[in-house]
Amino acid sequence: QVQLVESGGGLVQPGGSLRLSCAASGFTFERSVMRWYRQAPGKERELVAGITAAGAGTSYADSVKGRFTISRDNTKNTVYLQMNSLKPEDTAVYYCNTGPYFWGQGTQVTVSS
User: Fold this and answer.
1) Which of 5, 15, 18, 81 fits a 20 to 30 Å CA distance from 66?
2) Could you read off the pLDDT of 59-86 as tens digits, one per residue?
3) Which residues of 72-90 are buried (b: 16+ CB within 10 A; e: fewer)?
């Protein structure tokens, strides 16, 4: 079955960096668009970044452009989210996604001094 397992979250100070990873299995990863979403307390889940199957195309929410970078390694069935210059408003649970139905369990990112 499809599995998406996120890791790399944690507590970081404002201005710091984190790298999230999502290990995928149970589907043809190299043919699948992958996305990162996030959900802050009391807010709706929002799309943060997406990457095409071969990795040639990426897209970002305006709020993270220039600070976050999505990438993938199709030899490892893994998608990454490099997050730099983190702000308190980036605090959320971050989810890996593919297609309309498949989600990871999420990883908590907390940006606080």
Assistant:
1) 5
2) 999 999 999 999 999 999 999 999 999 9
3) beeeebbbbbebeebeeeb
Copy the structure tokens of residue 107: 């990883």
Contact in structure between 39 and 92 (CB atoms under 8 Å): yes
Identify which of 39, 36, 65, 31 has the alpha carbon closest to the alpha carbon of residue 49.
Answer: 36
Question: What is the DSSP code string of 30-64?
Answer: GGS-EEEEEE-TTS--EEEEEE-TTS--EEE-TTT
3 state DSSP class of 29: helix
3-state secondary structure of 1: coil
Q: Which of 17, 1, 2, 5 is nearest to 109 (CA)?
A: 17
- Cα separation, 1 vs 58, in Å, equals 26
